[in-house]
UniProtKB/TrEMBL annotation:
Broad class of enzyme this protein falls into: transferase
Domain PUA, first and last residues per copy: 281-360
Database matches in PANTHER family: GLUTAMATE 5-KINASE (PTHR43654), ISOPENTENYL PHOSPHATE KINASE (PTHR43654:SF1)
Organism ancestry: Bacteria, Bacillati, Actinomycetota, Actinomycetes, Streptosporangiales
Pfam families per UniProt: AA_kinase, PUA
Organism: Actinoallomurus liliacearum
Positions of ATP binding: K14, S181, D182, T221, G222, G223, M224, V225, T226, K227
Protein name in UniProt: Glutamate 5-kinase
Record's keyword terms, sorted: Amino-acid biosynthesis, ATP-binding, Cytoplasm, Kinase, Nucleotide-binding, Proline biosynthesis, Transferase
E.C. number: 2.7.2.11
Length: 382
Protein backbone atom coordinates (compact mmCIF):
# COMPACT_ATOMS: atom_id res chain seq x y z
CA UNK A 1 0.00 0.00 0.00
CA UNK A 2 1.36 3.43 -0.98
CA UNK A 3 0.52 5.35 2.16
CA UNK A 4 1.47 8.79 0.81
CA UNK A 5 -1.17 8.48 -1.91
CA UNK A 6 -3.76 7.08 0.49
CA UNK A 7 -3.25 10.04 2.85
CA UNK A 8 -3.37 12.64 0.09
CA UNK A 9 -6.08 15.27 0.48
CA UNK A 10 -5.29 17.29 -2.62
CA UNK A 11 -4.13 15.68 -5.87
CA UNK A 12 -3.44 16.54 -9.47
CA UNK A 13 -4.50 13.97 -12.05
CA UNK A 14 -3.30 14.29 -15.64
CA UNK A 15 -4.71 12.31 -18.56
CA UNK A 16 -3.11 12.19 -21.99
CA UNK A 17 -4.88 12.53 -25.31
CA UNK A 18 -4.80 8.81 -26.06
CA UNK A 19 -6.62 8.11 -22.77
CA UNK A 20 -9.55 10.36 -23.72
CA UNK A 21 -10.13 9.88 -27.44
CA UNK A 22 -10.94 7.13 -29.91
CA UNK A 23 -8.42 6.01 -32.55
CA UNK A 24 -10.09 8.33 -35.10
CA UNK A 25 -9.53 11.34 -32.82
CA UNK A 26 -13.04 11.88 -31.50
CA UNK A 27 -13.88 12.18 -27.82
CA UNK A 28 -14.47 8.83 -26.16
CA UNK A 29 -17.45 9.67 -23.93
CA UNK A 30 -17.44 6.28 -22.22
CA UNK A 31 -13.78 6.56 -21.20
CA UNK A 32 -14.27 10.10 -19.94
CA UNK A 33 -17.30 9.04 -17.90
CA UNK A 34 -15.35 6.12 -16.44
CA UNK A 35 -12.50 8.43 -15.43
CA UNK A 36 -14.90 10.98 -13.94
CA UNK A 37 -16.53 8.15 -11.96
CA UNK A 38 -13.15 7.44 -10.39
CA UNK A 39 -12.30 11.09 -9.67
CA UNK A 40 -15.72 11.87 -8.20
CA UNK A 41 -15.56 8.71 -6.11
CA UNK A 42 -12.13 9.56 -4.74
CA UNK A 43 -13.15 13.15 -4.08
CA UNK A 44 -16.26 11.96 -2.28
CA UNK A 45 -19.61 13.65 -1.79
CA UNK A 46 -21.99 13.54 1.16
CA UNK A 47 -25.18 13.76 -0.88
CA UNK A 48 -25.24 17.53 -1.29
CA UNK A 49 -24.30 18.86 -4.75
CA UNK A 50 -20.60 19.65 -4.84
CA UNK A 51 -19.97 18.87 -1.17
CA UNK A 52 -16.64 17.10 -0.73
CA UNK A 53 -15.31 15.09 2.17
CA UNK A 54 -12.13 17.09 2.54
CA UNK A 55 -10.57 15.91 -0.72
CA UNK A 56 -9.75 18.10 -3.71
CA UNK A 57 -8.73 17.23 -7.25
CA UNK A 58 -7.34 19.29 -10.10
CA UNK A 59 -7.63 17.56 -13.45
CA UNK A 60 -5.05 18.37 -16.14
CA UNK A 61 -6.58 17.18 -19.39
CA UNK A 62 -4.94 16.88 -22.75
CA UNK A 63 -7.07 16.09 -25.76
CA UNK A 64 -8.21 19.45 -27.17
CA UNK A 65 -6.25 19.11 -30.40
CA UNK A 66 -7.08 15.41 -30.69
CA UNK A 67 -10.79 16.09 -30.10
CA UNK A 68 -10.79 18.69 -32.87
CA UNK A 69 -9.29 16.42 -35.53
CA UNK A 70 -12.51 14.56 -36.36
CA UNK A 71 -14.83 17.59 -36.66
CA UNK A 72 -12.28 19.29 -38.94
CA UNK A 73 -11.79 16.18 -41.06
CA UNK A 74 -8.09 15.91 -40.23
CA UNK A 75 -6.82 12.30 -40.40
CA UNK A 76 -3.99 12.83 -37.91
CA UNK A 77 -2.37 15.46 -35.72
CA UNK A 78 -1.06 18.19 -38.05
CA UNK A 79 2.45 19.56 -37.82
CA UNK A 80 1.43 23.04 -38.87
CA UNK A 81 0.94 25.25 -35.80
CA UNK A 82 -2.05 27.13 -37.25
CA UNK A 83 -3.84 23.83 -37.92
CA UNK A 84 -3.04 22.63 -34.40
CA UNK A 85 -4.51 25.83 -32.99
CA UNK A 86 -7.64 25.52 -35.12
CA UNK A 87 -8.12 21.93 -33.95
CA UNK A 88 -7.62 23.02 -30.34
CA UNK A 89 -10.18 25.80 -30.73
CA UNK A 90 -12.82 23.34 -31.89
CA UNK A 91 -11.79 20.51 -29.58
CA UNK A 92 -11.49 22.47 -26.35
CA UNK A 93 -15.17 23.40 -26.30
CA UNK A 94 -16.20 19.82 -27.03
CA UNK A 95 -13.92 18.50 -24.31
CA UNK A 96 -15.11 20.88 -21.59
CA UNK A 97 -18.76 20.32 -22.53
CA UNK A 98 -18.21 16.60 -22.06
CA UNK A 99 -16.56 17.12 -18.65
CA UNK A 100 -19.33 19.49 -17.57
CA UNK A 101 -21.99 16.90 -18.36
CA UNK A 102 -20.05 14.04 -16.83
CA UNK A 103 -19.21 15.72 -13.50
CA UNK A 104 -22.78 17.09 -13.29
CA UNK A 105 -23.93 13.51 -12.70
CA UNK A 106 -22.35 13.90 -9.25
CA UNK A 107 -23.53 17.45 -8.65
CA UNK A 108 -20.03 18.77 -9.30
CA UNK A 109 -19.21 21.86 -11.31
CA UNK A 110 -16.09 22.33 -13.41
CA UNK A 111 -14.01 25.38 -14.21
CA UNK A 112 -11.81 25.67 -17.26
CA UNK A 113 -8.28 27.02 -16.69
CA UNK A 114 -6.20 27.48 -19.83
CA UNK A 115 -2.52 28.22 -19.35
CA UNK A 116 0.43 28.89 -21.62
CA UNK A 117 4.12 28.58 -20.97
CA UNK A 118 4.19 32.38 -20.89
CA UNK A 119 1.62 32.37 -18.07
CA UNK A 120 3.88 30.12 -16.03
CA UNK A 121 6.95 32.18 -16.91
CA UNK A 122 5.64 35.59 -15.91
CA UNK A 123 5.53 35.86 -12.16
CA UNK A 124 2.34 37.95 -12.00
CA UNK A 125 0.50 35.49 -14.28
CA UNK A 126 1.86 32.64 -12.19
CA UNK A 127 0.36 34.13 -9.02
CA UNK A 128 -2.94 34.82 -10.75
CA UNK A 129 -3.20 31.19 -11.87
CA UNK A 130 -2.49 30.08 -8.31
CA UNK A 131 -5.21 32.31 -6.88
CA UNK A 132 -7.73 31.19 -9.49
CA UNK A 133 -7.13 27.50 -8.81
CA UNK A 134 -7.32 28.01 -5.06
CA UNK A 135 -10.59 29.90 -5.39
CA UNK A 136 -12.13 27.21 -7.59
CA UNK A 137 -11.19 24.56 -5.03
CA UNK A 138 -12.69 26.68 -2.26
CA UNK A 139 -15.98 26.71 -4.16
CA UNK A 140 -15.89 22.93 -4.48
CA UNK A 141 -15.39 23.13 -8.24
CA UNK A 142 -13.15 20.72 -10.18
CA UNK A 143 -10.61 22.77 -12.18
CA UNK A 144 -9.99 21.39 -15.68
CA UNK A 145 -6.53 22.61 -16.71
CA UNK A 146 -5.10 22.48 -20.18
CA UNK A 147 -2.47 24.33 -22.14
CA UNK A 148 -4.00 27.17 -24.12
CA UNK A 149 -3.03 25.66 -27.45
CA UNK A 150 -5.12 28.16 -29.43
CA UNK A 151 -2.72 31.04 -28.66
CA UNK A 152 0.59 29.27 -28.08
CA UNK A 153 3.26 30.87 -30.26
CA UNK A 154 6.31 28.77 -29.42
CA UNK A 155 4.82 25.41 -30.48
CA UNK A 156 3.08 23.25 -27.88
CA UNK A 157 5.87 23.25 -25.36
CA UNK A 158 4.69 21.56 -22.19
CA UNK A 159 5.10 18.05 -23.59
CA UNK A 160 1.62 16.53 -23.56
CA UNK A 161 0.90 18.51 -20.39
CA UNK A 162 3.15 16.32 -18.22
CA UNK A 163 5.42 19.18 -17.18
CA UNK A 164 2.41 21.47 -16.82
CA UNK A 165 0.82 18.95 -14.44
CA UNK A 166 3.99 18.84 -12.32
CA UNK A 167 4.07 22.64 -12.14
CA UNK A 168 0.38 22.77 -11.24
CA UNK A 169 1.08 20.28 -8.43
CA UNK A 170 3.60 22.77 -7.05
CA UNK A 171 1.30 25.69 -7.72
CA UNK A 172 -1.51 24.30 -5.54
CA UNK A 173 0.76 22.45 -3.08
CA UNK A 174 -0.73 19.09 -4.00
CA UNK A 175 0.02 15.96 -2.00
CA UNK A 176 0.37 13.65 -5.01
CA UNK A 177 0.38 13.59 -8.79
CA UNK A 178 -1.18 10.84 -10.93
CA UNK A 179 -0.04 10.65 -14.57
CA UNK A 180 -2.38 8.59 -16.76
CA UNK A 181 -0.99 7.35 -20.04
CA UNK A 182 -1.77 4.68 -22.64
CA UNK A 183 0.95 2.52 -21.04
CA UNK A 184 0.33 0.94 -17.65
CA UNK A 185 3.79 1.72 -16.22
CA UNK A 186 7.38 2.63 -16.98
CA UNK A 187 9.29 -0.29 -18.49
CA UNK A 188 12.97 -0.94 -19.08
CA UNK A 189 12.21 -0.84 -22.83
CA UNK A 190 9.31 -0.98 -25.24
CA UNK A 191 6.66 -2.97 -23.30
CA UNK A 192 5.73 -4.77 -26.52
CA UNK A 193 9.19 -6.28 -26.72
CA UNK A 194 10.04 -9.57 -24.99
CA UNK A 195 12.06 -9.10 -21.85
CA UNK A 196 10.85 -5.56 -21.10
CA UNK A 197 10.40 -5.33 -17.34
CA UNK A 198 8.03 -3.07 -15.40
CA UNK A 199 9.76 -0.71 -13.00
CA UNK A 200 7.75 -0.73 -9.80
CA UNK A 201 9.53 2.01 -7.85
CA UNK A 202 11.88 4.86 -8.69
CA UNK A 203 13.66 6.27 -5.65
CA UNK A 204 16.71 7.87 -7.26
CA UNK A 205 18.11 8.58 -10.75
CA UNK A 206 20.21 5.39 -10.61
CA UNK A 207 16.98 3.37 -10.75
CA UNK A 208 16.59 4.57 -14.34
CA UNK A 209 20.03 3.45 -15.50
CA UNK A 210 19.68 1.42 -18.67
CA UNK A 211 16.04 2.35 -19.20
CA UNK A 212 15.12 3.21 -22.81
CA UNK A 213 12.49 5.94 -22.87
CA UNK A 214 10.19 5.92 -25.88
CA UNK A 215 8.61 8.76 -27.81
CA UNK A 216 5.07 10.04 -28.13
CA UNK A 217 1.90 8.10 -28.76
CA UNK A 218 -0.61 8.27 -31.58
CA UNK A 219 -2.20 11.67 -30.85
CA UNK A 220 -0.16 13.25 -28.04
CA UNK A 221 3.09 15.20 -27.98
CA UNK A 222 4.72 13.63 -24.96
CA UNK A 223 6.15 10.25 -24.14
CA UNK A 224 7.96 8.56 -21.29
CA UNK A 225 10.70 11.18 -21.40
CA UNK A 226 8.29 13.96 -20.45
CA UNK A 227 6.61 11.81 -17.81
CA UNK A 228 9.88 10.94 -16.11
CA UNK A 229 10.87 14.61 -16.23
CA UNK A 230 7.52 15.58 -14.70
CA UNK A 231 8.02 13.05 -11.91
CA UNK A 232 11.51 14.40 -11.26
CA UNK A 233 10.36 17.99 -10.81
CA UNK A 234 7.01 17.38 -9.11
CA UNK A 235 8.44 17.18 -5.59
CA UNK A 236 5.54 14.94 -4.45
CA UNK A 237 4.76 11.22 -4.86
CA UNK A 238 3.94 10.44 -8.49
CA UNK A 239 2.14 7.40 -9.90
CA UNK A 240 2.47 6.66 -13.60
CA UNK A 241 -0.10 4.22 -14.98
CA UNK A 242 -2.93 3.98 -17.51
CA UNK A 243 -6.45 5.36 -17.29
CA UNK A 244 -7.93 1.92 -16.59
CA UNK A 245 -5.85 1.74 -13.40
CA UNK A 246 -6.75 5.23 -12.12
CA UNK A 247 -8.97 3.84 -9.35
CA UNK A 248 -6.40 1.41 -7.94
CA UNK A 249 -3.70 4.11 -8.23
CA UNK A 250 -5.75 6.55 -6.16
CA UNK A 251 -6.47 3.80 -3.65
CA UNK A 252 -2.73 3.34 -3.12
CA UNK A 253 -2.56 -0.08 -4.75
CA UNK A 254 0.64 -1.38 -6.29
CA UNK A 255 -0.07 -0.46 -9.91
CA UNK A 256 2.05 1.36 -12.44
CA UNK A 257 5.33 2.98 -11.44
CA UNK A 258 5.69 4.89 -8.19
CA UNK A 259 8.16 7.78 -8.15
CA UNK A 260 9.25 8.63 -4.62
CA UNK A 261 9.93 12.35 -4.06
CA UNK A 262 13.67 12.96 -3.95
CA UNK A 263 14.81 14.95 -0.94
CA UNK A 264 13.37 18.24 0.16
CA UNK A 265 10.69 19.74 -2.07
CA UNK A 266 12.09 22.67 -4.07
CA UNK A 267 10.63 26.08 -3.43
CA UNK A 268 7.94 27.05 -5.92
CA UNK A 269 9.96 30.12 -6.92
CA UNK A 270 13.08 28.16 -7.83
CA UNK A 271 11.10 25.39 -9.49
CA UNK A 272 9.30 28.04 -11.52
CA UNK A 273 12.64 29.55 -12.57
CA UNK A 274 14.17 26.20 -13.51
CA UNK A 275 11.27 24.61 -15.36
CA UNK A 276 8.68 27.23 -16.33
CA UNK A 277 10.85 30.01 -17.70
CA UNK A 278 13.02 30.52 -20.76
CA UNK A 279 16.11 32.68 -20.61
CA UNK A 280 15.47 35.96 -22.43
CA UNK A 281 19.19 36.47 -22.89
CA UNK A 282 22.59 35.33 -21.66
CA UNK A 283 25.10 36.70 -19.19
CA UNK A 284 28.61 35.25 -19.39
CA UNK A 285 30.55 34.67 -16.13
CA UNK A 286 34.24 34.34 -15.36
CA UNK A 287 35.38 31.16 -13.54
CA UNK A 288 35.33 32.84 -10.15
CA UNK A 289 31.72 33.94 -10.58
CA UNK A 290 30.71 30.46 -11.77
CA UNK A 291 32.27 29.02 -8.62
CA UNK A 292 30.47 31.56 -6.42
CA UNK A 293 27.07 31.04 -8.06
CA UNK A 294 27.11 27.26 -8.57
CA UNK A 295 29.01 25.95 -5.57
CA UNK A 296 28.49 28.64 -2.95
CA UNK A 297 25.03 29.90 -3.91
CA UNK A 298 26.17 33.52 -3.98
CA UNK A 299 24.56 36.41 -5.79
CA UNK A 300 26.00 37.40 -9.16
CA UNK A 301 27.97 40.63 -8.87
CA UNK A 302 29.02 42.90 -11.75
CA UNK A 303 32.69 42.08 -11.12
CA UNK A 304 32.17 38.50 -12.32
CA UNK A 305 30.42 39.32 -15.61
CA UNK A 306 32.40 39.14 -18.85
CA UNK A 307 29.70 39.45 -21.51
CA UNK A 308 26.01 39.85 -22.26
CA UNK A 309 23.80 38.63 -25.14
CA UNK A 310 20.22 39.40 -26.05
CA UNK A 311 17.72 42.17 -25.44
CA UNK A 312 16.09 41.82 -22.04
CA UNK A 313 14.68 44.07 -19.36
CA UNK A 314 15.15 44.24 -15.61
CA UNK A 315 13.07 41.49 -14.01
CA UNK A 316 13.38 39.07 -16.93
CA UNK A 317 14.82 35.56 -16.49
CA UNK A 318 18.27 35.21 -18.09
CA UNK A 319 20.66 32.30 -18.47
CA UNK A 320 24.07 32.44 -16.82
CA UNK A 321 26.86 30.79 -18.82
CA UNK A 322 30.44 29.80 -18.12
CA UNK A 323 33.34 30.79 -20.38
CA UNK A 324 32.54 27.85 -22.70
CA UNK A 325 28.95 28.95 -23.20
CA UNK A 326 27.42 26.22 -21.03
CA UNK A 327 24.29 27.33 -19.15
CA UNK A 328 24.94 26.83 -15.42
CA UNK A 329 22.13 28.85 -13.81
CA UNK A 330 19.13 31.06 -14.45
CA UNK A 331 18.02 34.13 -12.57
CA UNK A 332 15.92 37.27 -12.52
CA UNK A 333 18.15 40.09 -13.66
CA UNK A 334 18.15 43.49 -11.95
CA UNK A 335 19.30 45.48 -14.99
CA UNK A 336 18.35 45.98 -18.63
CA UNK A 337 20.70 44.33 -21.13
CA UNK A 338 21.89 47.74 -22.36
CA UNK A 339 23.06 48.72 -18.86
CA UNK A 340 25.25 45.70 -18.15
CA UNK A 341 28.28 46.37 -20.43
CA UNK A 342 29.15 49.49 -18.42
CA UNK A 343 28.95 47.50 -15.18
CA UNK A 344 31.04 44.47 -16.19
CA UNK A 345 34.14 43.84 -14.14
CA UNK A 346 33.34 46.64 -11.69
CA UNK A 347 32.82 46.37 -7.95
CA UNK A 348 29.46 47.48 -6.56
CA UNK A 349 31.31 50.04 -4.38
CA UNK A 350 32.93 51.63 -7.44
CA UNK A 351 29.62 51.66 -9.30
CA UNK A 352 27.83 53.31 -6.39
CA UNK A 353 30.55 55.98 -6.17
CA UNK A 354 30.76 56.69 -9.91
CA UNK A 355 27.20 56.08 -11.12
CA UNK A 356 25.09 56.56 -8.04
CA UNK A 357 23.78 54.51 -5.08
CA UNK A 358 21.10 52.82 -7.22
CA UNK A 359 23.91 50.81 -8.87
CA UNK A 360 25.11 49.30 -5.60
CA UNK A 361 23.20 46.08 -6.18
CA UNK A 362 23.74 42.64 -7.66
CA UNK A 363 23.22 41.70 -11.27
CA UNK A 364 21.11 38.82 -9.89
CA UNK A 365 20.33 38.31 -6.21
CA UNK A 366 20.75 34.77 -4.91
CA UNK A 367 17.07 34.63 -3.89
CA UNK A 368 16.11 34.98 -7.54
CA UNK A 369 18.59 32.45 -8.89
CA UNK A 370 18.51 28.70 -9.54
CA UNK A 371 21.45 26.46 -10.42
CA UNK A 372 20.89 24.25 -13.48
CA UNK A 373 23.91 21.93 -13.27
CA UNK A 374 24.82 19.26 -10.75
CA UNK A 375 22.85 18.09 -7.75
CA UNK A 376 21.65 21.57 -6.83
CA UNK A 377 19.69 21.79 -10.07
CA UNK A 378 17.74 18.67 -9.22
CA UNK A 379 16.89 19.80 -5.72
CA UNK A 380 17.14 23.57 -5.22
CA UNK A 381 17.09 24.80 -1.66
CA UNK A 382 14.29 26.84 -0.21
Amino acid sequence: MREAVVRARRIVVKAGSSSLTTPDGSIDAARIDALVDVLAGWRGTDGRPGAAKGREVVFVSSGAIAAGLGPLGLPSRPRDLALQQAAASVGQGLLVARYTASFARYGLGVGQVLLTADDMMRRSHHRNAQRTLEQLLTFGVVPIVNENDTVATDEIRFGDNDRLAALVAHLIRADALILLSDVDALYTGDPREPGARRIQDVREPADLDGVRLGGSGRVGTGGMVTKVEAARIAGVPVVLTNADSAGPALAGENVGTYFHPAGAQPSTRRLWLAHATTGQGRVRLDPGAVEAVVRHRKSLLPAGVTGVEGDFSAGDPVDLCDDEGRVVARGLVNYDAAEIPELMGRSTRWLARELGPEYEREIIHRDGLVVLVGEQAASPRH
